[in-house]
Amino acid sequence: xxxxxxxxxxxxxxxxxxxxxxxxxxxxGYGVRDIARQIGxxxxxxxxxxxxxxxxxxxxxxYRATTAQWHAQRxxxxxxxxxxxxxxxxxxxxxxxxxxxxxxARGKRPGPQVAxxxxxxxxxxxxxxxxxxxxxxxxxxxxxxxxxxxxMRISHEAIYQALYIPGRAALLRELSMCLRSGHPxxxxxxxxxxxxxxxxxxxxxxxxxxxxVEQRKVSGHWEGDLILGLEKSAIGTLxxxxxxxxxxxxxxxMKGHGxxxxxxxxxxxxxGADAVRQAISTxxxxxxxxxxxxxxxxxxxxxxxxxxxxxxxxxxxxFCEPRSPWQRGTNENTNGLLRQYFPKGTDFxxxxxxxxxxxxxxxxxxxxxxxxxxxPAEAFNECLSSSxxxxxxxxx
Length: 396
Fold this sequence. Notes:
Blueprint: H1 16-27, H2 32-39, H3 43-52, H4 65-76, H5 83-86, H6 88-99, H7 135-145, H8 156-164, H9 189-194, H10 211-214, E1 221-228, E2 234-240, E3 246-250, H11 273-284, E4 294-297, H12 306-313, E5 316-319, H13 329-338, H14 353-364, H15 376-395
Parallel strand pairs: 1-4, 4-5
Antiparallel strand pairs: 1-2, 2-3
Helix pairs in contact: 1-4, 2-3, 7-8, 11-12
């Protein structure tokens, strides 16, 4: 047997010293959990080590540290051939479930014929029609279709690596368009976790928002967002949490839209940070201070001037966690109602202030079950009247 390396690995892997201790404890008759407890490892780690790296050459299953270390180093050698590239039957099964053609009863292939573009991002276009099982579905279905054939096994991670790592030479990168996400590139988790907006700090996150806001007992707390249309058009929405009263922000395109944009200049589509701040400020300054307490938004770049907006209106700005739209549930529900008037795939720039006000009026005069079948306009007028009375009493 060749010499084994005794160089310490990272703490993620068992070291030779740990394997020696496992061997001694095993010879003394200790169980898996007792061994794990004594060396400070998870019981599943010890169980896997005893099963995979045991010595079997003598006809019996024994665990010896030197043999286990040799097995671990042999298995860790790279590069290794992908299982899909060496197992033809498994390759056909995975390929057929991932990229197999959909056919009609007459044997025709429906759907658009889409060519591989190789882009990570781009304009909306037709998607490739295929069977499109996910790698996890393929991996788990193999156990049902081949219960007695252990060679017909592959993890979903191995399928992803066969798609995204060119050196694996198992599946073509083009087949990534059959995945539900359709992404031709894979983004590391560390990069996704570190993504964030520089203007969002812990002090303005939604967890810092007072608890009474969640209970909807006090008026003046708003939620906001943008709904987007074609050609980078957008409409801003503001919804009061207690009364569900809705205001729509007119965000027209700025002068020069469609021409060559100046570097680091304003967003000419009309829903950049400066345009959104001005629209919110204009709408909110028409209300009493009692009705503009806070505003909750997602982490869109259109709110990068939130500090200036707070100085102008007195609104305390809070931001939701990334990919957590339910933290603005009232606003998300209202946006769904607005899609009846502004469906996806239409250009919102053709609507002016009068049209937006008409839609907002229609929405605010619809009875709502959450308000005891009162309308948001009626509930908001009550809050407005009470705030005016309070202001008159305090000044008188």
